[in-house]
């Protein structure tokens, strides 16, 4: 029997499933994309920035929705990442999987760098949606929000809002007095304008 190869969204370990016994990491992101499409109330000409793309699983969910004209993914594919240890991966494999998972769309651009090095390459209000799923430490997430909030004109959010990631919860509370909405996968969002 082949070993089950786990991923963060498509095939997470069974013990990560929600209380209902289904893959809440996939469903939660799909529900959040559906919510975004109604919150923004238009399709096709929106720009999304994903900070921390890892294997491109969430990227492919965003792309398959059809609501984004352009998706920018920012990930250095370098440094410490707890998922590498949990899933027995390495950065070379992760980057290969990113390209495999995003190969169906030509509107995805990968920027292989740290977010703080790239912020000046985008004008203010450039992105309609920014989704952060990179370094979850308090200081790093706060820095990303402070740097990229001016670059966003509609919805800012990220992943892992929950008890397992208290720094994420604290930053979102400190910066926004909490999220406007949280989905079953821990995706959180704050609406900046309608």
Itemize the secondary structure elements and their pairings.
Elements: H1 24-40, E1 46-51, H2 57-64, E2 68-74, H3 82-86, H4 91-102, E3 108-111, H5 115-118, E4 127-132, H6 138-148, E5 152-158, H7 166-176, E6 181-182, E7 188-191
Parallel strand pairs: 1-2, 1-4, 2-3, 4-5
Antiparallel strand pairs: 5-7, 6-7
Helix pairs in contact: 6-7
The portion of residues forming beta strands comes to 15-25%
Output the CATH topology.
Rossmann fold
**Tertiary shape:** globular
Strand order of the largest sheet: 3-2-1-4-5-7-6
Q: Can you offer a commentary on this structure?
A:
The protein has seven helices and seven strands. It has 194 residues and is an alpha/beta fold. The model has no long low-confidence stretch (mean pLDDT 91). Helix content is 35%, strand content 19%. The relative contact order is 0.16. It has one domain: Vaccinia Virus protein VP39 (Rossmann fold). The chain has a seven-stranded mixed sheet, with helices on both faces.
Condensed summary:
With 194 residues, the protein is α/β, with parallel strands linked by helices. The protein is built from 7 helices and 7 strands; from the N terminus they run αβαβααβαβαβαββ. The model has no long low-confidence stretch (mean pLDDT 91).
